[in-house]
Amino acid sequence: MNATAAGRVAQGEAAADEPAAANAVPLGILVPGLPHPLLCPEGNPGWQRVRDGFGAARERIAASGADLLVIYSTMWPSILGHQLQANPEPEWTHVDEDFHYLGSIPYKFRIDARFAELAVAKAQVRGLRARTCAYHGFPIDTGSVVALKLLNPDNELPAVIVSSNIYANRTETVVLGKALRDAVEEQGRKAVAVVVSTLSNRLVTEPMEPADDHIHSLKDDEWNRKFLEYLEKGRLEDLSQLSRQFHDEARVPKVVAFKPFWWWAAFMGQANLYAGTVHAYEPVWGTGSAVVSLEPAGESTGDLEYDEDDPEFYAGDREVLDLRDAPSMGALPEGDGD
Amino acid sequence: MSKGEIVMGALAPHPPHLVYAENPPQNEPVSEGGWEELRWGYERLRKSLARKEFDVIIVHTPHWQTYVGTHFLGVPQFKSLSVDPIFPNLFRYSYDLSVDVELSRSIHDAAAKAGLHVMMMENPDFRIDYGTITSCHLVRPEWDLPIVCISSNRSRNYFSVEVMQANMLKLGKATRKAVEASGKRALLLSSNSLSHRHFTEEPEVPEDMSQEHITNHNQYLWDMKMIELMRAGKTRELVDIMPDFTEQTVAETDAGSLTWLMAALDFPTYGGEVHAYGTVIGTGNAIIGWDPASA
To answer: Which residue of A7, A105, A211, A239 has the smallest Cβ count within 10 Å?
Structure first.
């Protein structure tokens, strides 16, 4: 079942005669990106539980039969469209901007450059601006480094990392997810969708003893738990549809929108047809940091009708106030619209 | 020991395109030029600095973003490669720089006394951000002076521009106090653009100047408003309207650098000298110097 078919299932239309979505993306993983679970899990029992959650997710990856990790990192911002890491063996010693005192992270990763090139081509076919990055010393973000070090420590699987465009909104992000899936299907791959993102992202902004770590506010915690409840029920598309509200309620607005669930749902198949497992949910320096896995399941939790559009192609920004760009609105009266 | 002083403060934006266009040996990509108006503006700023003697460059940078307080470089030497995460095709710069750790720590201590959360960055593997490198390179390409590098605390994201400014006013005063106590002569750099809405696509030839212009007229009008205030020495009014400017133009003043500079200069009532205004991939950039000797 392709993404569009899965979307129809989410909207209550039968697609039983199509092969299962599981073939292309048999597993989805949500992980947080702060370095504490990697560098100092012993600092707080919660950080250790997040670290253990990474371990559980790694076992799921091993059992999935996947041959590729596709990482969407909210900690890699881009401006010129969407960037994909394509250096076959990026090698560096990374230091986090904020938590530099926790130590350095040497790394050497295995990147599937050919897949990255194909994914860029697929993105362009769907109207997106996209390009690969293959430069020695390119600053791979903390979240991607942490995810690859803990989920794929021996580079068992090749990976590709996708940036998060700071100006992109839902249409662009959904289309990006579909484009990545196009590439997976064309190569006949089995990919794990790895999303690097906290739930609530509000850090504690003061020095703090590790033992005192806590979710920044009760409101953040309640929204996180609501999302986790949905994730356990496999309601990925429902969460995608709730992203705007989550952005308003539980996110510090550093960018225009909370995008990872849009990408995740589009890449995995825009459905509620999953079995979810929450491996960990803990505060990491105030943020809601969860490790969650989603695996395709036979039954949909719900057949809902959504307000959000299901775009297949990105046609660029539209000036909603300029009615001349909207032919369906009809001709404007003379002198109107200025 | 004689009293230290700030010999000049400058708005010194950091588009990596300007270094790319200069083709210095440290930068790997090669260009055919571009953005001459701004580059010649930096040349004029350098000429104005040639009349000054100073011991250290203090830079406040939007591209070292910290959320837990304000951080200061605390290692004497850094040598590595800086690759711009947004424009890696333009900026892959090998740097070798020294840090005035003593002054860095003094500003850190003064800021702590003023009630700010602060931290020294003492990890030798830390990579210097491209904003710091670009501004410092364009102001002093010889790299013969130590720097002090101050991170941008993102309190604007967590609270508001007003809260950010309140913190930056304290940081600016603390910087001035520490410089005066040090006996050193310092050049201060606010490493930021003004309006900051980028184009989301790049010309096939990045330095194709037929493609360069401000993203929209709103940004241009706001940039001119701010520059007029700077020229007129109305820097308190400048800081007062900074929240509106920042919101309306997605301005890079959200980093706090310009507010910090104005506070460190004790809100100049003399005009800033405008060396250039120009756009880089749609953003508005001004190169402006404030010389206390002209007060």
So the answer is: A211
